[in-house]
Amino acid sequence: MKHPFKLSKSNIIYASIVALITLLFNIRIYGFDAYVIGLSIGSLFGIIIIPTLIALLFWFVLGKKEKGGTTAFNIVLTLMLFGSISEFGQIAKEREKPIDDLKEAVSEYKEKTLANPDSTDTNYSELSTDIKKSIDDLIKTSVGEERKVFITLKKYFKKADSVNIAWNNAYNAFAEPRILDFTILNEKGEYKFQKKIIQEYINESKNFKSFVQNRVEYLKTQTKNIDRNNKSYKGFIKGLTNKDSIQKPIFIPYINGHIEYGQGINKIIELLENEQGKWSYENETETLTFENSETQITYEKILNDAISNEEIVNKLSDKLVEIM
């Protein structure tokens, strides 16, 4: 006797269980937002339609018997569940890898930079490349609000990277042997050139300081259209805020040391220019002597302050690397 095609109660219950498991997996991986709801609804249709079509086929093959195809429905549904579990496991690994790669890149940067401070530029370039790749990978494996968070993170890092590179370039120019080389400070053009380089170093140091002081608020502004309850957003902001509270007490004195050191060197250049022809430099003893005793006292005070700031910078430099 032929019977109409109909899923059994056990089919419906089992399908509901599989749908719930799929929903929980989606929430566990992607969080809970409108995208995940849509994704889960789509998965639900897949869970129902594909096994149902195959069950319908078996119902025909079995001669339209009562409950024909119900076993096939459960078998297909089970295979789909195992496939989904495997897929979720792969997705989880793909999502964890960029984070692991990022942690490894930071760890390598610390190790290399502390071991060889002179290679900081090269090390940072490698770190920057690794961070960009990790963020791109996170974007590829994320969805919904979480993806918005990582896209914003990419924009934030691009900004932070540009600020750091601009400062680093200014610092490298300032650190050239030509700056404060008393043997070539004998014409107006050279004074002008050196003051320009020093001022750029001071300006970029101030810009760097301003960025770090305001980076949390900057990021909050950039993420104003992201759901504040999203777990990725919460984790991201919390992580940055915590790191900011650790780094800022060291970074601010560090960058202030750079600013004040640059200002001190600039004052020395101006002093030399104003006293042109009234000072001499002994190369062997590295002694600068002004004819005017008051100017000499002023110079020595500026120099001592500059040396103090240089010591602060050197002292805090390694600490900044350690707390990255």
UniProtKB/TrEMBL annotation:
Top-level taxon in the UniProt lineage: Bacteria
Keywords: Membrane, Transmembrane, Transmembrane helix
TM region positions: 12-30, 36-60, 72-92
Protein name: Uncharacterized protein
Origin organism lineage: Bacteria, Pseudomonadati, Bacteroidota, Flavobacteriia, Flavobacteriales
